[in-house]
Amino acid sequence: MTEAVLLVGGKGTRLQPLTLNTPKPMVPAAGVPFLAHQLARARAAGVEHIVLATSYLAEVFEPYFGDGSAYGLRLTYVTEDQPLGTGGAIRGAAEALTTRPDEPVLVFNGDILTGLDIPALLRRHERAQADVTLHLTRVADPRAYGLVPTAPDGRVLAFTEKPRHPDEIVTDQINAGCYVFRREVIDTIPAGRPVSVERETFPGLLDGGALLHGLVDASYWLDLGRPASFIQASADLVRGIVRSPAVPGEPGEHLVLPGAHVEPGARLAGGTVVGAGARVGAGAEITGSVVLDGARIEAGARIRASMIGNAARVGPRTVLDGAVIGDHAEIGADNELREGARVWCGTAIPDAAIRFGAA
Ligand code: GTP
């Protein structure tokens, strides 16, 4: 039986205000909490038991996902009273696993969308007889990530977390947030104190002579930590650019959930999703965006690459481009909010009050 640990306890500060009331893995992408896509993908790869390592807003996961049987999985919840970091969370969650010491355990960050061939990662781990095998991906600008150079045979040579100096940028391969650990290696992570797997565990294992392997995989990969990438991921799921069995519909230019109402003459494109009970007025144009449940988009609004929170309202003719609108916020008519604009939950903006970042 293949078991996995899914890390879902982070505060998701970069995604605020969306993560003030909802933990990042529960924010909807393509109509369902993002976590549902990860569970479905893990199940499709043959994983049968997943331990969810929760901390921030931990209480919301189990009421939604229950024992996992609806997803064809067994789910167990392990909660840290104080966040223990990625390594501490893996160590704590592993207590709930039944995997034998010499068998592999999968570990997933809860905020990565990827088309990775998970069985191929497991096969590489077995073939290399590695202590840990990491999924690596190549990015154009690796500075915001953990760099992982490898030897031609895949052996990891070093870990450089978020390099500051140009000399440190020795590769474009980065830690993609999915690992296979030999079970007994997890038991060497100190228990009961915060540990970063990226900054402490992996470099420590390497220094201690452990065998770490990296599998560079060129399939779809996106880190959903920032609003722009979260919105992009949702649109890519809706359009089928990356496939998830959890998307509630066929791939297409838009996804309108049951109970939403879109007036004739409104235009939805670019993988836009409109949540349950949301309303879109006549002549509104929404491209590549996420409209959450119960939101109201008034007539003639133009929205691109934005996220509209639960029960928020966007007034007539208002333009949003790269904006994040918190739950229950009210944006009046004829406003213009562009790149990076974030409106906090419950905020009210009067008519024609803002032209943010307009050309
Ligand atoms: P930011 O605050 O925006 O950096 O997001 P984050 O809190 O999610 O941190 P980060 O993106 O570095 O976390 C990577 C993954 O590890 C995410 O899936 C987090 O949910 C998870 N994670 C981070 N810290 C903890 C922790 O202390 N406990 C648990 N259980 N999970 C964590």
TrEMBL record:
InterPro entries named in the record: GMPPB_C, Mannose-1P_guanyltransferase, NTP_transferase_dom, Nucleotide-diphossugar_trans
Gene3D superfamilies in alphabetical order: Hexapeptide repeat proteins, Spore Coat Polysaccharide Biosynthesis Protein SpsA, Chain A
Domain Nucleotidyl transferase as annotated: residue spans: 4-237
A Pfam family reported for this protein in Swiss-Prot or TrEMBL: GMPPB_C
Record-annotated Mannose-1-phosphate guanyltransferase C-terminal domain positions: 253-333
SUPFAM superfamilies listed in its UniProt record: Nucleotide-diphospho-sugar transferases
CDD domains associated with the record: NTP_transferase
Family: Belongs to the transferase hexapeptide repeat family.
Protein name according to UniProt: NDP-sugar synthase
